[in-house]
Amino acid sequence: MIKTITGNKDFIESLRGKRASFFLCMSNTKTADTPGITQAGIPGMLHLTPTLDAEFISIGEVRSLGNIAETPKGVPTPALITRAVHLLHPFQEIELLNLGLEVAPCVEYFTIHDFKIDPSHSIAQDAAIAAQEVFEKGVQFAQELSVKSDYIILGESVPAGTTTALATALALRYDAREKFSSSFKNDPSDIKHTVIEQALSRIHESDDLFETLAKVGDNMLIFNAGLLLGLQNRDIPIVLAGGTQMACVLLIVNRILQMMEGELDGSKIALCTTKWVAKDNASDIKGLLEMNDFTINAYYADFDFSLTAHPALKLYDEGEAKEGVGAGGALVYALLNGITKEQITRKVESFLQ
Amino acid sequence: MIKTITGNKDFIESLRGKRASFFLCMSNTKTADTPGITQAGIPGMLHLTPTLDAEFISIGEVRSLGNIAETPKGVPTPALITRAVHLLHPFQEIELLNLGLEVAPCVEYFTIHDFKIDPSHSIAQDAAIAAQEVFEKGVQFAQELSVKSDYIILGESVPAGTTTALATALALRYDAREKFSSSFKNDPSDIKHTVIEQALSRIHESDDLFETLAKVGDNMLIFNAGLLLGLQNRDIPIVLAGGTQMACVLLIVNRILQMMEGELDGSKIALCTTKWVAKDNASDIKGLLEMNDFTINAYYADFDFSLTAHPALKLYDEGEAKEGVGAGGALVYALLNGITKEQITRKVESFLQ
Asked: Which of B130, B128, B101 has the alpha carbon at shortest distance from B113?
């Protein structure tokens, strides 16, 4: 079942039976090097997480390391969910967007768009992103994009990405402090809080929008804000596959439009996330979406791991991991194409044996 | 299993694995206001049936009323079957054809073709259809049609449509009195008979084909006759998803061709219906098809509700409902794509919980 968060069912129902291309946005921010700030990956190897996620969803193996990225307590990456869906009802294609990686994924035959963007620095010091340039690369990509399928599912893999997203929303003066999700069950608020306060202390009253984004954002957030605006005159429906980070992309778009006195046609954009995000008590995806001047449809896949006994997967239901690598959008795609919860569960289990 | 009624298996086997667009033809005739003439819908709300059917197959909810259309004894609309198939193996797209509705369906994102046709009057008085015009709209639609999928499945929802179909066949001088199906188990022959006799009494020896259709037909029958002829020079295979009403469309096409001394290339047309129609003792779909000068392939889906204990669905097996909303064609599509009787049964049951 697909459940509605905002809007109505019509948009997502109109994508039933349609073919999707899956785009993975990958980037690194040095913010992830802050000890304890994220559990998305292997300690000491966190920067490899997007690289390994991309390899795993594309070819089913991780080349740049021996094992699938696991979080400290052993929560497997949500890339397992996205890969399971791709095996059960394949995406028309998978394309990879290198938005500033330490290590590029090692896969042949798959399109890797290289935007010549550097990994960003820690927001605790200054992310030092060429924000306007990254934004314009997103706009240009959308304008030149040719898609063979009926719509795009856009996922992301950015370790420490919820930290940069929350810092960005706060720096853009949204009252979002209680609305952001984290991949930690016991949100490491002290570490995160400290980093975010450091980041915010660097923002000056006089900073314009892009100066602010340059200091506290990440490449994925800024590029995708450009991508969404670049798609406005294209007839390509897009599913933002993610939780609070994708919501932050929309908050950035909202501020840009306010600055330009423009309006968004949200009729071809939806956000699709997981039940773990939608039902998360520590965040408020609906509240974040409702902070925008525009409305878009948002949905979640009514999927959990209640059908498995595997302890590593049970951790999802216990709130240890919630979203990432487009898992929510992939689950919605599966449900739109007749794939059952049972089938997805068994396929994910098969990767852990 | 897909069983052959006329022709051979080759055409339908050639559609195995192909993608289909589902088109629903919706129209109202005031004939349905005759008390007791049809059970396709909610008493007093019969005119809403095609509207609700369209909403339910598209988005899975009925917007223009609180509940799914049920017949007086509680037989649920065959739209449940079509929706179940769409969930299990989605159609490439669903498009809605407004051929004269009292109330248009309330759905966004789905294409609704509005042909600016009025609901028709009761055939007991005079349906007063601009028959030539409706026919030409069908021809034109077929000639301009662009389809993204491999073939079309054409379903219909027209309350009292079996009455207008039988009246039309008789008015066109087919010996069809015993060959027509009804959605009633105990066919309300008295009421139906009376209405049909009233309709036929208005037909004069001097009436030409379109004058006859104008008096006793319905918009769906006439439009689709045009559509089939308009498709003749197009390379678009079409499945007429229905029983005796779709057979009547072919009987009209046959008379038009006789008038024009034309021939039909039936190689890209098939009729697909349910087992309940194919095995119905009170009607004779094969006999109707064999009245034409041309031959087309016809099939039925070997599906019944023997795997359920749900009393409302059992009524189908008891002959209370037989076909409609493209159910037969949808079932054939499901079987062509590896979906099982068990899966369809469970999915239909899930709507009634």
From this structure: B101
Burial classification of residue A38, based on how many CB atoms lie within 10 Å of its CB (0-12 exposed, 13-18 middle, 19 or more buried): buried
What are B349's two structure tokens?
């049951």
* Contact of B23 with B220, CB cutoff 8 Å: no
Strands ordered across the beta sheet of B93-98: B2-6, B297-301, B269-274, B238-241, B151-157, B20-26, B93-98, B112-114
Q: Is the CB of B347 inside 8 Å of chain A's CB atoms?
A: no
| Alpha-carbon span A224 to A210, nearest angstrom | 14
Nearest CB among A9, A11, A336 relative to B90 is that of A336
Is there a contact between A79 and A329 (Cβ–Cβ < 8 Å)?
no
Compare CB distances from B90 to A8, A11, A338 and report the shortest one's residue.
Answer: A338
Distance CA B121, CA B27 (A): 11
**Tokens (6 digits) for A110:** 């798959």
Q: Tell me the CA distances in angstroms from B265 to B222, B229, B231, B257, one per residue in order.
A: 19, 9, 10, 11
SS3 B70: strand
Q: Is the dihedral of CA A152, A157, A158, A160 positive or negative?
A: positive
Domains in chain A, ordered, with CATH? 2-351 (3.40.50.10210)
Q: Is A3 on the interface with B (CB under 8 A)?
A: no
Contacts of B86 in chain A (CB under 8 A): 16-17
A96 token code pair: 């990879």
- Distance set, CA A252 to CA A32, A170, A255, B87 (Å): 21, 11, 5, 36
Contacts (Cβ under 8 Å, ≥6 apart) of B134: B99, B115, B117, B219, B222, B223, B226
Amino acid at the residue A94: I
Residues 6+ apart with CB under 8 A from A254: A264, A291, A292, A293, A294
Residues of B in contact with A8 (CB under 8 A): 108
How many CB atoms are located within 10 Å of the residue A118 CB? 16
What pTM was computed for the model?
A: 0.90
Mutate to test the interface with B, among A13, A269, A332, A336 (most CBs of B within 10 A): A13
Residue A196 burial (CB < 10 Å; 0-12/13-18/19+)? buried
**Half-sphere exposure at residue A2, Cβ-oriented, CA atoms within 13 angstroms:** 34
> Are B352 and B319 spatial neighbours (Cβ–Cβ below 8 Å)?
no
- C-alpha distances (whole Å) from B154 to each of B139, B238, B272, B324 are 15, 7, 10, 11
What's the CA gap between B160 and B179, in Å, rounded? Answer: 16
- pLDDT values of chain A reduced to their tens digit, one per residue, 353 residues: 999 999 999 999 999 999 999 999 999 999 999 888 876 667 778 899 999 999 999 999 988 876 555 555 567 899 999 999 999 999 999 999 999 999 999 999 999 999 999 999 999 999 999 999 999 999 999 999 999 999 999 999 999 999 999 999 999 999 988 777 665 556 666 888 899 999 999 999 999 999 999 999 999 999 999 999 999 999 999 999 999 999 999 999 999 999 999 999 999 999 999 999 999 988 899 999 999 999 999 999 999 999 999 999 999 998 888 999 999 999 999 999 999 999 999 999 999 87
B87 at A interface, C-beta within 8 A: yes
Contact A338 B93 (CB under 8 A): no
Q: Which residues of chain B does A14 touch, with a Cβ-Cβ cutoff of 8 Å? A: 93, 108-110
